Structures are given as C-alpha cells and as structure tokens.
Amino acid sequence: MEIMTSISSSALKVEEWDKAFPSLVAAFSTKNGGCSSGDFLSLNTGLHVKDREEDVVYNRSCLGNQIHAPLSKWVLADQVHGSKIQHVSAGDCGRGTLKYENAIPDTDGLWTTDLNVFLSLCYADCVPLLFVEPTSRFVGAAHAGWKGTVQNIAGKMILEAQNAGVDIDQLQAVIGPSIGPCCYIVDEYVINQVNNVLANEKQKPYQEISDGQFRLDLKQLNKLLLLQAGLKGQQILSSILCTSCEDQLFFSHRRDRGKTGRMMAVIGWKG
Ligand SMILES: [Zn+2]
User: Fold this and answer.
1) pLDDT tens readout for residues 210-224
2) How far is the CA of 124 from the centre of ligand 1 (A)?
3) Which of 1, 48, 131, 206 is the most buried (most CB within 10 A)?
4) Angstrom distance (rounded) from CA 146 to CA 259
C-alpha cells in the first residue's frame, strides 16, 4: 500500500508521519502547480537545470507556503552524487534557496536538530531518503541516486545520527518516490558496485533480464542498506510510486531523457 497522500496538487506527505508528528513537515513535491514552462512544466524546483531563476524561486516559495515551511528557512545542498553528509543549523537557513552558489557545497545529505530548519534536496528519479527521531529532534535528508546509494549514504546517515547521540532504535526512515525496477535497467558496472556495498547480504535487489542487463530496485537496495546499518523493518517506510511510470505526477530524468525539472523533498520541525 502506498504511504504517501496528497497535501495539494503540488505536494505529497507521509500519512503515518503526519499523524504521529503534528509539528513535523515532511513533504515531497510533484511536478504540478508551478509557473515554469517547456521541459520544466510546471513546478520545477531545481536552479541548476537552466530554467528561469525567478520561476524556480517562485515555485519553491509557493511550495513552501503550501507545506508550511517558508522558503527563507530552507537549506539546500550543491548535490554531486556523492555521500558526504553535513550537519546544518539555524544559521544556515536560506542557503541555496535563491542562488545556487551559496548552497552547502559538495553534499548529498543534511541533518539538524534545530527547529525551523527545513532540509531540502532535489530529485528526478534518484531516491529521496528522509529520517526523523522525535526525542532528539533529529531530522535528516539524503539524495541517493545509484552512485550515492552504492557509496552507502543511507548507512552513513545512520552513523551520523548515532554519533550525534540519537537513539537509533527510535529513528524512522522514509524511502520516497523514485525510479522503480520497472523502469531502471543498469549494466554490470553498476551491479558490481551494488554487490560490493551489500557485503554478505543474500537477498539481491536486482534481476538479470538479458546478458549484462539488470533491473535494479534502488529503493529496495536502500532498504537493505538501512537494515544493514541497524534499523529494523518496522522503522522503514517505502513509497511504491515510480517517478518514470507516474508521468502525471513526477519529472523523470530517464523518461524525459535528461531534459526535465526537479522535485524537492523537504523535512524539518515547525517551531
Ligand atoms: Zn516505472
């Protein structure tokens, strides 16, 4: 069963988290309800894809209003398909929101325990990972395309939380809408790295469909990595939505052959 429900035409929320944590904002944007045109029709939230800057800022601002997380309190990263995770605080609010240049550099994961800091990362097929632990007020967000995934950004976020004193038994993770195995074919080069990161895992999140061609389930791979890092199955929720199949809801880098917009995942506590 799908874990996401609509906030508006522009945003989805995690139903279970919405009930459990009334002061938490945890939202995934769709491609609808914005002002961008052409390849970016219409709610493009990525500043780095050659869309009009003022349109992107307007889109972000509208999204922020709808999810009750004002854009001035967002923190964005300059995402590079790596696995570096950065701790941010209230003083970082606004970074990367209006200009790409002052985003947190070379970073694909963010976490904070401050109120009114909304971690915001861009996606178009890659896996958005969100984390929450209510007692410590820990929230985290990670961008896990295949490269970040095989560098185990999921497991590194658990380690970051642990090092920050967070009770890992109380941590919850959401694996958001991203490209599904239905639409994601990769070659042996990728699969070798998947096997490396899975260490002794017997279960494989891929299937060979022809010589050297594999269907890869990136969401399942991230789930296995979260389990490997110490989370239990009941601490992990996963969306079944495929960004490529759901062409009325999402941008998809693969489906749209690279010329497309970006969705945003946003998480933070309202103060
Ligand atoms: Zn699909």
Assistant:
1) 999 999 999 999 999
2) 13
3) 131
4) 19
